[in-house]
Amino acid sequence: MYGEDPEPGFKHLATFGKPIWVTEFNHPYGSQGGAAEQAQGLIKWMKRLEELSAPYKVEAAHIYELLDEPYWAPSYEAFMGLHTLTQRQDGGWQPAEPKPAFLAVQEFITDAHR
């Protein structure tokens, strides 16, 4: 789920009478257009999934993906994560700061369970 409203697909899937799991969603192109844009886009889709969860039995939704993959730049795949990576001296990678999208998702989930 990357930018299109999922309701038409959910309507069809609901005809099978099974719960729906969204196996991937994120803001299209992650943070390639900016970190704030990704955070706002993710929250928009999380709110939409929340709206659609009861009528279409949406049980789970998984954000793609946890870590940026800067080694894929300039591809959008380099910017899809909720955390940045930094390169180590030995050439490997390590998690760095959480992106605004991570913090926005964390806040959304925390507020939903209060």
Describe the fold and architecture.
The protein is α+β, with helices and mostly antiparallel strands. 38% of the residues lie in helices and 20% in strands. It has helices at 7-14, 35-56, 100-112; strands at residues 20-25, 58-63, 83-87, 93-98. The strands form 2 sheets. The chain has a two-stranded parallel sheet with strand order 1-2. A hairpin with a 5-residue loop joins strand 3 (83-87) and strand 4 (93-98). Helix 2 (35-56) packs parallel to helix 3. The chain is elongated, with a radius of gyration of 16 Å. The two termini are 27 Å apart.
Number of helices: 3
What is the helix content? 25-40%
Radius of gyration: 16 Å
What is the arithmetic mean of pLDDT?
95
Q: Tell me the distance between the termini.
A: 27 Å
Oligomer: single chain
SSE string, helix = H, strand = E? Answer: HEHEEEH
Spans with pLDDT under 50 lasting ≥5 residues?
Answer: none
Task: Quote the beta fraction.
Answer: 15-25%
Shape: elongated
What about the largest sheet? 2 strands, parallel
